[in-house]
Predict the structure.
Amino acid sequence: MTESLKIGLLGHGTVGGAFDELVGGRKEAIESAIGRPAVISGVLTTSIGDFDEILAASDVIVELMGGTDTARDHVLASLRAGKPVITANKQLLAQHGAELFAVASESGVQLRFEAAIAAVVPVVRVVQESFGAVEFTKVSGIVNGTTNFILSEMAATGASYEDTLARAQELGYAEADPTDDVNGADAAAKMAILARLAFHTPVTLDQVDFEGIESVQPDDLAYAKELGLSLKLLGVAERLADGITVRVFPCFLYGGHPLSPIEGPFNAVTVEAPEITEVTISGPGAGGVQTASAVLGDLVSVVTGDAPTHKVQNDLPVLTDVTSSFYLHLEVADEPGVLAQVAKVLSDGGVSVKSVVQKGMGDDARLVMVVHRCLESKFKSAIEEIGRLDSLRSAPRFIRVIEEEFV
Amino acid sequence: MTESLKIGLLGHGTVGGAFDELVGGRKEAIESAIGRPAVISGVLTTSIGDFDEILAASDVIVELMGGTDTARDHVLASLRAGKPVITANKQLLAQHGAELFAVASESGVQLRFEAAIAAVVPVVRVVQESFGAVEFTKVSGIVNGTTNFILSEMAATGASYEDTLARAQELGYAEADPTDDVNGADAAAKMAILARLAFHTPVTLDQVDFEGIESVQPDDLAYAKELGLSLKLLGVAERLADGITVRVFPCFLYGGHPLSPIEGPFNAVTVEAPEITEVTISGPGAGGVQTASAVLGDLVSVVTGDAPTHKVQNDLPVLTDVTSSFYLHLEVADEPGVLAQVAKVLSDGGVSVKSVVQKGMGDDARLVMVVHRCLESKFKSAIEEIGRLDSLRSAPRFIRVIEEEFV
């Protein structure tokens, strides 16, 4: 009789419970995929189970408990004991990745984490395995489903950010405390991991600049629709001449961009390199059973293959002042000379205007501009000065624009 | 000193040459990915090289020669000699898959073929490894770049099929003899392989029904645009209650379908199952260096992991008479009673009309209809009868329609 694969399961919440059910419900498929039966040999929650006993009784540890303290201890102990670990814990990897990868490598044990980024969308495997010898130039992702749902809804309905967030909460697409989703922090953690894998360089969470979607206004989306642009919260990790940049920000995408059609709570990641052009993977970015399916895929692979353990091969500087194109929205006094004032400040600051439209009249007068690619620091100095003009009725608003660059 | 990985390269055309260059040009990345240098130990073409010598001198065989006779002999000999094989040869796998997989399995050797389907788009890995324990319900794909380019161009320009094909040939997106691309045969070979992998069941090429795009008319695309539909040559492998269906046909997709935004020479595949919802992968479906990159990804994996060898686990009947919804385009005489005649034939045949629009007048009078899902055999009998009506000015044209079904 073949011995079963014994799985120690840490955590039994939404994803842990779904994983437990999948292992029970997909018995035959798993046995056929790994060549022997798989069983849950122990479950650890805050109320039941003993970690040391579970570790001793298991061939592989699946960490779905969340948090970064106990989870870190248990994952390190498991790796040191020579037991492969599968985790869906993005914060753990974003904050303690360097340590975890080092210990996995020293111990010669697999650490797999497909579900930590974009749930069931197999971006980790594609980056590490399909394209393991590719030198990526850029990784762009919609890696937070809550914000993509909100932006899609705002674009479709014209409703305000606040109303749409409330609707997302009702539908279960946003948590009661949505802070880490809407301010970009969740996406930043995922991009830190992705940038590390793609560029083989240590990227820490505090090196990722992030902005959220809290200040997006319905008229930004209306303007985007006119121009055939879509608004997305994008994570971008890019290789530049003198380092890399890893950032999360709302931005307008032209209609033909591969991430432009991604709507609702879906996630998607596009990887680029000259020899692959661009490859995009998309799918549901959350959900208990979907996330558990990604964990199950890792489990099969732990048994049947050797995942490459991430190794630092570079130590690339993480740059923050890079170039972007911007959309700029100014609520201005309806009087002659305002455009001239604004144009002079931009021009003096070295920011070149691509297009400008005057919209509305009286108390609704606005200037909507797009400026050419320039260093962000230059743009920000210029709009700081614009913000001090008497003719401004409120603070300037801006959103980055990613224009056509794909073939 | 670590011993190099010795690669025997069969074939040195566009893809073979690009692979040779990649191995030379990406030395460091490959060494870092596989832990030792990789070298081409021998090249076989019609004019140089001896297969037996190359086989003896190689750790792994990369088959990029094409064809199904010599290629089959060499791949079988390599597997039997215990050497892993990587191939990009879809016809070889579609026609001799059963034999090749069986020999790979007996010999305990890896047979990898990511590049055979959709070039650099990592669909084989995702189906076999990420979702190795998932019971797929459906695999849909745009797996031929030539036809997708032609249909995208026809939709954008309104040009005829013949003119657009000529343009595609000029641009290098279509071959001088485009027959196997435009008639669906190339896509059918890829779908035979994908269906085999997804459903673990033997699917042979002759079980795949295929239709091409040769009879698509510009006004079909104009009609699609009005309705927000896109026209694609789709491969669909689906699990039904009493078997599977594997087919290739042009069809209209609603705007929110994940394959709807795929334009130009790109490929994309969507896999579906309840536990993963749907995951879509897209990217360039052809190109020497892109295809060679997929081969390189397989090479890295041959060294670092164990690919699951496809094993037949089911013997599902392949059904051909399944249900579809249809768009029906009739050029009719501009006289009273034609719609009533047509409606009666459809209704007598058990085909239910969803919508009908009368277009044009006089010699341009047409009926454009969409009918509800029905067995294809019923629909085809009905339109055969409609084709015999005196009031028809030309043979009926139809295109399948895939309507909203995703969430």
